[in-house]
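Dear colleagues,

As part of the handover before I leave the project, I'm documenting each prediction I ran so the next person doesn't have to rerun anything. This entry is a single chain, and its sequence is reproduced below.
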Amino acid sequence: MTASPRPGYHHGTLRSIRRFALPSILLAAAASTVVAGAAFGYTPPPLMKADVNLQDSNTCKACHLDITEQWEHSAHSKADRNKNELFGRMYFFSLKQTRGATLIACGPCHETASFVNQDFEGLRDVSKEGVTCVYCHSISGPGDPKGIPPYLIDLTAYQGTIRTPTPTKSHKSAYSGYLTKADYCGSCHNYSNQHGVKIGDTYGEWQRSVYAKQGVTCQSCHMPGGPGRNSSEGPARPRVADHSFDHDALAKARPNATKLALTGARNGADSVRVYATLTNSGWGHSMPTGNDQNLVLLRIRALDSTGKILWENDPFTEWSVSIFGIVLADELGTWPADTWNATKTLSNRRIKAGASARVRYDIPTAGAKGPITIQAHALYRQSKPVTLEAYGLSEEQYGQERTLAEATAKVP
């Protein structure tokens, strides 16, 4: 087994990142200065024809308490520059490097309401709520694929999946079957950077999977829900969609979505050869999916009969063995490149839906007593260590590794 060289950022980039303070007011000001030059692709909604005044989530909570509290714990509610510090720092730096191009590339999906109410300075609370209630429920259907946002926005009524919504004095309600379709999620979960490099292809991965053919949509897994009430003013219903997009809820909907198996045998007197097979058995798309920061790792450990650790790997020295995801490179070949600087995909080791990956480890075991126990964990994390270092973020906060599957094998 050979270890890949450690990746690195340009030193100039690191110095530049560390030089800047990142208060949100400066980021807002930077965004507002580039709108004139970058917003040629922006498709503003017909605000003058609307009678809905976009409200923040606290207004929704009065009647939709359970749903709003679920959303507050979701990644959607923390998608903006202020609540997601990793995105915020990268976004700020990308605006400077691209002269505002990433405002149009990233903003409509991370800071949704600001593109509906044209509040790019973030003066209203609703503009700072990431993927917020009023944005998702103002979408009535698909729009121009090149539009920003690429949806039909209807601000005269809040859209939902109930065909006969209960009338309320708070707002008008309308039915939109589009909210039940995977296309509804696909416009944000399928994107390329300004160089045409495909960064996230979650929707495309789903389209090419067996799940699309079976009619299993994004909402089926990520919003399973159960009996309850959509609103305190409405009746009890057999199913109310879960708006937390929670890993626990997803695990209940798709148990055993990740499988890990180990096989091993002696490889001479002083080593053990182990094969780890990682299977995407239940993800509705590739594993991992989404942006280039998302990774699945294999951490392997060998112990002797006394419990002594004989060997353990460091996945980040084994990019071609123990790490699954995509690696981007810039025009100079430096990797991993930031999303907006990438000009090519250097490696794509995402495991397709229903597929497996098999990797080999030759583990030194000289002096080991008795049988060898091999422990393996498949772990998911949402940021690369080199990214956290470059942007001055803590491993404790942004480098958590969540267990997807584990396996143990004994080699006599």
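DSSP finds 15 helices and 18 strands in the chain. The CA atoms of residues 229 and 236 lie 5 Å apart.

All the best with the project,
I.
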